[in-house]
Amino acid sequence: MIFSRDTAIIAVCIVCALVAAQFQPSKSSVEGVLPALSKAVAQSVEGGTGQQYELREVLAKIAQYYNAEPINPRVDSVWKLIPGLNGVRLDIPATLAAAKQNSAQIPLIFQQIPPSISLNDYVAEPIYRGNPQKRQMALMINVAWGTEYIPQILSILRQNGVRATFFLDGSWAKKNPEVAKSIVLAGMEIGSHAYNHPMMSRLSREQMINQLTKTNEAIFHATGQHITLFAPPAGDFNNLVVQVAAGMKMKTILWTLDTIDWRKPSPTVIVSRIVKRRTPGALVLMHPTEPTVQALPEMIRSLKQDGYQLVTVSELLSSVRPVPKTLAEAQVALSKSGKL
């Protein structure tokens, strides 16, 4: 049997990728092998119909790995409301067409298929985590006192390409509008942490509404942002709190993992508390403290090294299923899993 030159290149590169995956190399070594495969596939696209068949076979493996059915939100006995997840389908014809336009960096065209039930169909349930099938986590930073550590935290997040969600106390936002605005200008998400750190479950309905309304007004005045997320102070809430927040178009957000950084532990302890207990879909509670600043770079590095995307709370709760954007990105993931 006679093989074309492009077929031989692809075969050799696949073998290299599989051998690399077998010995569990570092991310950099895997990514060093796979560009040759991407280049060979790109050459096959340019080579004509026969070579496009070879690309179609590669795409079929990617589709088999990533295609999934939609998952509806559900209420768990422990974790309460767990968000749903879109189904996805790799559109192979559309991807082949896109490859002809950009053979050097072949984009993958996925279709996102929403679940039949939306997270918004549940109006009186708190949220402690994202969907466990999303390899993402969200940093949620509750701010009710001080400003001295905010600039350092923002700088670390920006340097590492991470967007977090800051839940602001309304009285803090009123006193520190410029700092609140700087958080938004840094690309971060903003949520409500009530007005003056009350125990929400002890308030009347009118007092709850007042707390949330004053906070939303203070945040809007400082940042121009409309608030859709509410983190109750000290995690204190009851059903009425959730209902009142929902009536104001806000989801009640708790946490999966707690740094307990307000007790000022060592940075090593903070990192260990999160990295050792990391889990897909986790919401990580933090505060602007000195040990938090010191722990943040290593925490981010460790989580990213383990393949976690660090996103905002809204991104984590959305039903959008993360998928690779390019053929090369998919090949890295499949080679690590041994599926390529």
Number of strands: 12
Q: Which fold name corresponds to the CATH topology of the largest domain?
A: TIM Barrel
The CATH homologous superfamily of the largest domain is named Glycoside hydrolase/deacetylase
* Helix content range: 40-55%
Distance between the termini: 23 Å
**Averaging pLDDT over every residue, what do you get?**
88
Count of discrete structural domains: 2
* Uncertain residue segments: 1-37
Which descriptor suits the 3D outline?
Answer: globular
Supply the CATH architecture of the largest domain.
Alpha-Beta Barrel
Decide which structural class fits the backbone.
Answer: alpha/beta
Largest sheet: 6 strands, parallel
CATH class of the largest domain: Alpha Beta
Question: With helices defined by DSSP (H or I, 4 residues minimum), what is the helix count?
Answer: 13
- Give, in order, the helices and strands: HHHEEEHEEHEHHEHEHEEHEHEHH
Quickly describe the structure.
GO terms for molecular function: hydrolase activity, acting on carbon-nitrogen (but not peptide) bonds. With 340 residues, the chain is α/β, with parallel strands linked by helices.
Give the arrangement of secondary structure elements:
Elements (H helix, E strand, L loop, with lengths): L4 H18 L4 H21 L1 H18 L7 E3 L3 E3 L4 E4 L1 H10 L8 E4 L22 E8 L6 H10 L5 E4 L1 H6 L1 H9 L3 E4 L12 H19 L5 E2 L8 H9 L3 E2 L4 E2 L8 H9 L7 E4 L3 H16 L3 E3 L1 H5 L9 H11 L3
